[in-house]
Amino acid sequence: MTHFDTLIKNGTIVDGTRAPRFKGDIGIRDGKVVAMSRTGLPTGTATQVIDATGLVVAPGFIDLHTHYDAQIQWDPYCTLSGWHGVTSLVLGNCGFGFAPVAPENRDRMMLSMSRVEAIPFNAMKQGMLWDWVTFPEWLDTLSRIPKGVNVISYVPIGPVMIWVMGLEEAKRRDPTPVELAEMCRLIEAGMDAGACGWSVQHLGDGFTSIQRDYDGTPMVTDIMSNEVCLAFAEVLRRRGEGHIQITQAQDDIREDLVFVEKLAETSGVPVLFNVVSANNYHPRQSRRLLEWAEKAQAKGNRVYLQAVSVGNELTYTFEDFNLLDGHDDWREVTLGNVEERMLKMQDPARREGLRRDYDVGRMPIATGPIKHFIIKETIKPEHKRYEGMTLQQLGEAQGRHPIDAMLDLVIDERLQTVIFTPPFNDDLELNREIFQSEFTVPGVSDGGAHTKFVTLGRYTTEFIVDFVREKHILELEEAHYRLSCLPAKMAGFVDRGVLAEGRPADVVIYDFEALRSTPAEISHDFPGGDWRRVQRAEGYRYILVNGEVTFKDGECTGATPGKLLRHGQA
User: For residue range 142-155, what is the model confidence (pLDDT) as tens digits?
Assistant: First the structure.
């Protein structure tokens, strides 16, 4: 008689393939699904039995866009993602990472990440192992450390360029032919070691360049030429494997999209484009991207769009906020320490520029219209009356320009005033259109990044709650295909993303009606007691990674069955 390590009984199985759900049992042994039955499997044959009556049983979610490269070294479950049913994820997005990095450049690389991805520097300084130098050595570290999720990694282009050229030269010019050949060799070595492809942020130096270096200048990959990027694409064409993730500028959307499609054509591999979202203020933008992806795919160029499916609201203070960097005036006043920022905010010339931006309605890409910024929390009792006001209302209440009113308020509170920007990607019909396309992948959790501003790692939970249960944009079968099977196929996760015999047992078991994200809260759980904003999940009864339970009713079991998936497989 067949023995199972774990037997999941009487669940509503949604296998990730778009096939209709069915009631049945799943038998797991040695980390894999070894039996699935609609008629039942004998209970006495299992060491552990999970009663899934009334619960959905589905493949674990796959998160393609994270920045947990630092956090995974102190948080094996890569939370928020691990709380929200993610069982596999990709590191090294946007061309950012920590390998290869020479020992003398480690602090500078962490400073870069403290701005461009807003990962707290002190947490990185205390929590990172730094027991590697090269990219293959970094993968060895990932293989060795305890993990509660499976991971694969891109070769991030930024560290490769800096390793070969040095930071200043990489920001000043394109590589020489000899330098370019060495960069391609490093990408080859990374792919040989098990990388899933390479990644890049290519935002230029314009208004879409909202993620910048520690000193406010563009990242090295932002300003590299298209020709250099295409040379890296040739590496993957020669190998016939991998894929590309690109966060691309849209200053000239027609020209920029032509370039991204050229990357797909040159490389012959899938290209994951970031991002598409339901921009309520510019609906034509998302529709244009959807049309472009459809036409590119029809020509055989495998372009996929990664969609921000969860609300893009932000909660922050001006002590460390960085997502206004695409605007010269705002970037200036949000660079430096608290004292430096406060001094610049008081400068009359800088204020004039900020007032002008407000008056002409310039809309920061990441935040929506400035006039809609809301004063969420104040520090001083005399300011409590302003809580809940938009900037426009704040200005009216004081009889002053809204910019002057806000800046004086936050200066008086030493930049501790909490600002909230409401979501502007929640248009129902636009979201419906985005997920009618075969080529959109939900995600962009940015897990591990912008830790004090956003909690996008809840996207998996809210994709089901919002788009399936509440708004009926998608059927449950389609939602699980998008959350698991499609990203697995696109990114090369071998055998993952579906529930089937012989496949790894990455499984979520949840109560459909009880599923939800909890309210946002502050958690001091980073190294050194540093804090972050978090939203946990309710409704997940069990989360299994490679057949082992990592979370039961929201509580961590301490199991770390996650694996480094070199070339997408264990």
Answer: 999 999 999 999 99
Cβ density class 140-157: b for 16+ within 10 Å, e for less: bbbeebebbbbbbbbbbb
Distance, in Å, from the CA atom of 496 to the CA atom of 493, rounded to the nearest integer, reads: 6
Burial of 470 (0-12, 13-18, 19+ CB in 10 A): exposed
The answer to whether residue 49 is domain-embedded is no
| Dist. CA 229–CA 267, nearest whole Å | 10
Secondary structure class of 50 (helix, strand, coil):
strand
Q: Do 335 and 213 fall into the same domain?
A: no
Residue 11 domain-assigned (yes or no): no
Which alpha helices (H) appear in 464-552, and where do they start and end? 476-480, 486-491
Whether the per-residue pLDDT at 363 is higher than 80: the answer is: no
The domain spanning residue 492 has which CATH number?
3.20.20.140
3-state secondary structure of 569: strand
pLDDT in tens, 292-344: 999 999 999 999 999 999 999 999 999 999 999 988 999 999 999 999 999 99
Q: Residue type at 260? A: V
**This model's pTM is above 0.85:** yes
